[in-house]
Amino acid sequence: MNKLTSQQLAELKRKLLDEKQDLERRLDEQSSYGLTEPLSVRTGELSAYDNHPADIGSEVFERSKDSALNENSEQQLEDIRIALSNMEAGRYGECVTCGKPIPYERLKAVPTTQYCIDHVPDPHSSDRRPVEEQLLAPPFGRTSLDELPEHNEFDGEDAWQIVESWGTSDTPAMAENPNIADGYHDMYIESDEPDGYVEPLESFLATDIYGKSVMVVRNEAYRDYMHSGEGESILEPDMNAEERFGQNLE
Predict the structure, then answer these.
(1) Cα distance between residue 237 and residue 235, in whole Å
(2) Residue whose C-alpha is closest to residue 43's, from 65, 29, 61
(3) Which of 8, 167, 216, 236 lies at a 20 to 30 A Cα distance from 141?
(4) Residue 173: which of 157, 162, 184 has the closest Cα?
(5) Which sequence spans correspond to the domains of the chain?
(6) What backbone phi and psi angles, to 5 degrees, belong to 205?
(7) pLDDT tens by residue, 144-156
(8) Dist CA 81 CA 142 (whole Å)
(9) For the whole model, what pTM was predicted?
(10) Rg (CA), the chain
(11) In sequence order, what are the beta bridge partners of 215?
């Protein structure tokens, strides 16, 4: 049975109504902590989809903070409405778990509580996140598409391979391939992956814009091709410039 006096109930109701009015005013004046406005208004850009996600890192952090503040205010407002509804129904001040009266001192400290001190539920961490995080997470894997059969375009992994090929702070012991034979320049991810071609032949045979004047680019793929005994008659073994042009270049 509720042990609260009418004076105590009136005091708690006045406190709930004042807090309810303050929360509604705050949410209205701040436009739900700015969440009613698109992120582009804060950044000054036409779109929040930037080529450099780190550039909007601060804005995304502020967005997540505003989302948490807004959610907290909405939850407080809902708790106040439930408390006022329970007052009208004569159930205010009773623990919803055990049915025992909640001490006035506890209600005065937390007027919206529905639990006695022994049955307070564990707080639940919110799963709501800023919508902008759908673009930013996961940070690297979202653009590594090599494993997907329907994707064969230039992706995030290819971009990192180019950067990594110029060197990192890693040592050969940290390389993806532990059997590095040619030195540090082969340390980057999938360094032996064909770049810009599918078959090795495509990487060292070329023509002019008219499809004539077949030329051979003597690159590593060409040398591997010849060494494996797959050379065609149009190809010739590696030779120095003097042998190739039949003249002394000095």
Answers:
(1) 7
(2) 61
(3) 167
(4) 184
(5) 6-136, 141-186, 201-245
(6) -105, 130
(7) 666 677 666 677 7
(8) 42
(9) 0.45
(10) 35
(11) 206
